[in-house]
Amino acid sequence: MTDTVALRRDMAVESRVSAWVAPDGWPHRRFDWTHPDSRGRILVQGGRADIIEKYLETIAHLHAQRWSVTAFDWRGQGGSGRLSDDPHVGHAASFDPWVDDLTAFWREWRADADGPAMLLAHSMGGHLALRAMLDGGVDPDAAVLVAPMVGVRSPVGAGAGLRVARLMTRLGDPARAAWTVRGDAKSAGHRERLLTHSHDRYADEAVWYARDPSLLLGPPSWAWVLEAFVSGARLQADPRLSTLATPILMLVADADGLVDSPAAVRLAGKLPHAELVRFGPESAHEILREGDAVRLRAYALIDAFLERHA
């Protein structure tokens, strides 16, 4: 195995996996990799159905830049339990508990040490980070939002998508899966194209889940889909966006097939201290797990941004 592959698939021997318990008693799977000559700390948070392992390569890059890195699996996914009876459905009746978890974790983590404290969040994680920053519970010195889920991509548009989701939660169990995952090659290929152009990085998932199948999560519930539309609309209309003091770097993939990139671009225009960088058809949803040209460009942007605010 090459060093590059090892960085993507294996946690560093110096890192540590532990448990963090939320104020309501919910256990979360936590990751820490402290740098011996740290310039500061950064909390890295993934998106829906993500696990810590998905960002090992990014974490290794940040650590090489002398950042101490922390991450945790969101409540209800990865190694942090489940919110429905079906362990393969990503259920959430509300996003509020996730915002509360992030706020509680941030306050404890922020108080652990002095120095710069940064936040990097992808997709749904970016949505939750924005909400927590607007509420004042999370106060990073700077934040990087990668393909933030300001809104979800819907083939019928946001308005009709909201109405469909609301109807489906009323017609049956809101915790049931919003779609069925087929195990055929065509379905897998479609999912891969939505996530990344890098076949090797997409293939890393099979390695992680073969080691620990309990980490795998499938499609969202209809309740999650409804909440994504509702919370996204509320976020986009929040008047506090224009007064958010946090410096933010927002990386957006215009060809993203999962989140509403135009909504993210519009929201960035409301933030007084936001730097927006857009990627074209060369990038799918997972900008930090793309081919080298995209990923290294993103790394350079992130490094320069963090350097300016450290």
UniProtKB/TrEMBL annotation:
Keywords: Hydrolase. InterPro entries: AB_hydrolase_fold, Hydrolase_4, MAG_DAG_Lipase. One of its GO terms (molecular function) is hydrolase activity. Gene3D superfamilies: alpha/beta hydrolase (3.40.50.1820). Signal peptide: none annotated. Residues 38-291 form the Serine aminopeptidase S33 domain. The keyword Transferase does not apply. Pfam families: Hydrolase_4 (PF12146). PANTHER family: PHOSPHOLIPASE-RELATED (PTHR11614). This is Alpha/beta hydrolase. It comes from Sphingomonas insulae.
